Amino acid sequence: GLLLSLCAAATLLFVAGGYGFYRHQAKIIRAEKYEELQAIASLKVGQIAAWRKERMADARFVSTGIGGEDASRWIEARGDDALEAEIRSRGAMLMESYGYQNLIVAALDGRLLLSLDARLTELDLSARDLVAEVVASRSIVFGGLFHCPACDQVHLDVAAPILDGAGRATAVLILRTDPDKDLYPLIQFWPTSSESAETLLLRKD
Predict the structure, then answer these.
(1) Alpha-carbon dihedral sign for residues 85, 151, 132, 94
(2) Is residue 137 a contact partner of residue 38, using CB atoms and an 8 Å limit?
(3) If I label 72, which of 30, 113, 135, 143 is the partner at 20 to 30 A Cα–Cα?
(4) 3-state class of 137 per DSSP?
(5) Lowest-pLDDT choice from 12-21, 168-177, 184-193
(6) Residue 75 near residue 107 (C-beta atoms within 8 A)
(7) Cβ atoms of residues 174 and 127 within 8 Å
């Protein structure tokens, strides 16, 4: 009886000690993983912020590259084919150099003036709203992800005012990005080895 009681007590102590050790180790591992996730989240936020800053810098540079007196004269007259061809050529070179899906020039009222992608014949509501924001703020504006009915794809736009020689806004430049090739791989990349890691992109409406 005594021996059996001692064995039972020892077993209970062993189980209790093992359970306590398990909980302690689980707590340590959970804390380590939490710190790892925090570090990865900070890394991803920094990468996306840098990517966004680069896109805005591109918009500023490209809007200057196709802006100026030539662009202003073409926007006002819209009858000089040679000048339009020059602006298209200049825009295509800049678009290819910076890796954008499309380069668009819109009037201040949201009408489409130029698209290097021939499939686009009219700006959708999302792009027109973006143009209105640029006109109102006279600054570069980053748009949100949206589905384009013209090509049945998701796009991400950044827009900047096109200025004439006097610094007046005459039109709006839109640089269109394909997030499948540019943004999504950046979000989905996981810097550490993991079989269960996932990244979700959420939008608050």
Answers:
(1) negative
(2) no
(3) 143
(4) helix
(5) 12-21
(6) yes
(7) yes
Placement of tokens 């000089």 in the chain:
80
How far is residue 65's CA from residue 41's CA, in Å, rounded to a whole number?
36
Both structure tokens of 58:
């591109």
What value, to the nearest 5°, has the Cα angle with vertex 127 and ends 122 and 131? 110
pTM, two decimal places: 0.77
Tokens at 89, concatenated: 């050529």
DSSP class per residue in 79-134 = --HHHHHHHHHHHHHHHHHHT-SEEEEE-TTS-EEEESSTT--S--HHHHHHHHHH
Residues 68-88: tens digit of each pLDDT: 676 777 777 666 777 788 888
Q: Residue 162 is inside which H or E element, if any?
A: strand 153-163
Lookup: tokens for 141: 């504006």
Tokens of 91: 């825009």
DSSP 8-state symbol, 138: T
How far is Cα 120 from Cα 109, in angstroms, rounded to an integer?
17
Neighbours of 98 (CB within 10 A): 18
Residue 28 carries which side chain, given as an amino acid letter? I
